Amino acid sequence: MTRTDRRAAVLGSPIAHSLSPVLHRAAYAALGLHEWTYDRFEVQEEALSEFVADCGAHWAGLSLTMPLKQVALRVVDVVEPLAEVVGAVNTLLFSPGGLKVGANTDVYGIVQALTHARSKITQVPTAGVIVGGGATAASAIAALGQLGITAPTIVVRSLGRSGVAIRAATAMGVSPQFLTLGTPEAAAAIGRADLLISTIPGPGSTALVELLPPELHAHQTLLDVIYEGWPTALPRAWAARGGTAAPGYDMLLHQAAEQVRLMTGKAAPLPKMRTALLSALGLSGG
């Protein structure tokens, strides 16, 4: 490879569905980084350390998705403070000095997606609810904190499967209220939420539709992190009842844009990346 050739990739399992290559390649093209490449690799937890060790000096960084966000904490040399407190690394950077640095851009993606959706809303949010207890929920806790909500409600199927979110909340000094999905208390919290973030993967968020109140206010904003098949049942129902829905693909877009900035040192070409993403999702008309 030549001096200017650089590599990056997204790792995870399963990975075939990932749209990260669409976003990063669009950014490279717009930035004139024609010798940069971005690929995807199927990598399980036990293989991450070996994969990273085999990355040479031409590697700029890696995007990490499930199930690698926690194990990456043990693979890098330095963990940035936000990634450490969240307990999840979704971005691995190869520094010029040879150090492997773990970062988290999911928090940034969540904040930007909600901020964009609420650009015309003046009411300051005070009640935040997160559904789910995994790595994305941990990032959501930090995101709500940045938006001024430091006492969120976290709705989970089981406290026993919510260790990542519990550890993240403890590390942040946050004391959230935990409620069990399906209870009247959880439904009431969801109905009162100024900001609701659903981190349930796959079709699971559809079950939340039954918990929504008949009417919502425009300032009540939902971010469902699911981006395939947008709009899915939950954001459709939320908007139909008067609330504001932030597309899950906006979180994907903004976290990738921050990765591009960190890996290339250049401001991400957001409009070009958005166009490529919407096209890949079959939403070219917006």
What's the main sheet like? 6 strands, mixed
Radius of gyration, whole Å: 19 Å
Structural class: alpha/beta
CATH architecture of the largest domain: 3-Layer(aba) Sandwich
| Topology-level CATH name of the largest domain | Rossmann fold
Unreliable spans are: none
Shape call: globular
Strand content: 15-25%
CATH class label of the largest domain: Alpha Beta
**Largest sheet, spatial ordering of strands:** 2-1-3-5-6-4
According to DSSP, the number of beta strands is 12
Measured as a percent range, the helix fraction is 25-40%
Oligomer: single chain
The total number of structural domains is: 2
Mean pLDDT equals 94
First and last CA, distance? 39 Å
Q: What name goes with the CATH superfamily of the largest domain? A: NAD(P)-binding Rossmann-like Domain
Number of helices: 10
Helices and strands, in order, run as EHEHEEHEEHEHEHEHEEHEHH
